[in-house]
Prior knowledge:
The chain folds into 2 domains: 159 residues, Alpha-Beta Complex (Nucleoside Triphosphate Pyrophosphohydrolase), CATH 3.90.79.10; 124 residues, Nucleoside Triphosphate Pyrophosphohydrolase (Alpha-Beta Complex), CATH 3.90.79.10. It has 5 helices and 15 strands. The strands form 4 sheets. It has a 5-stranded mixed sheet with strand order 4-1-6-5-8, sandwiched between helices. A hairpin with a 5-residue loop joins strand 12 and strand 13.
Amino acid sequence: MNVGTNGILVDQHGNVLLIKRNDTRTYAPPGGAVDAGELPPEAAAREVREETGLIVLPVRLAAISYLPMAPHGFLGFTFRCLLRGGDITPSEESPVVGFFKPKPLPRRMSGFHRERVEKTLNHAEERPLFFQHSVSTFNKVARFVLRHVVYRWLDLKRKLNGQPKFQPPPTWQIHTHLLCKNEAGAFLWYRATEQSTWQLPGGPAAGLQAPWQTAVQLAHQQTNLHLTPHYLTDVYLGPEKTNLTLLFLTEDAPMATNGPLLNWFLPGNEPESCQPAQVQMVDKVSQTPQPTQFHTLPT
């Protein structure tokens, strides 16, 4: 899966920072791919500075979105940012940079960028939104033209100018786990057999489905319960440089009795047969439920 970020910055007049992309000639919030070993908020700050010259501080994850575009799908983190310094400076990737009125946004803007900007500007809660973009036939054709015509032409120009060839963004492995918490404060764990390790419901993303949708399906197979994600509590990078783990707290916990393959454990009282990294994740969630926190796992 490809992973990217956007930084949303609003000035004192309520105008939003946008760039005009050099590849599509459309407007978009500044942003780009997350590099291997980089946390999404770090990537957002880096991309905003590279594309606009402005130094920003991502202060809140406003939305996490998924674009089911072949071949890998695209997971996007959108942050509300504060201005810390710098001067507006266009770049090769962004020949036009400026603040634009949010109503109406520029007409030449892709549907998914428009949706991210509008939803982020209208969302004031600390709990981030999570949603999936729709993909039209136009989106698919535009993506094909970009990959097979525009990017090849840009690579040729770079070669003629003695510049290195464009390197595609890394492909990430995304795992999503659902944190189901009962009234006593215990979390739900499962295991495949009585000899297996206890784990949190969920697992790796697959195909072109949003990671949280895959987690819901896996959790139903693992627990026979219908768990509904409520909000994204934590994001972990690691242990590999292209691994991300998403933790979603679920809505009201369903009734489930303890058994050999399904059990409720209070944080700090998990048996040694629980997956160690997930035990640490649960402990952090119980201490800081909001806003979304970003962490790096030891390698």
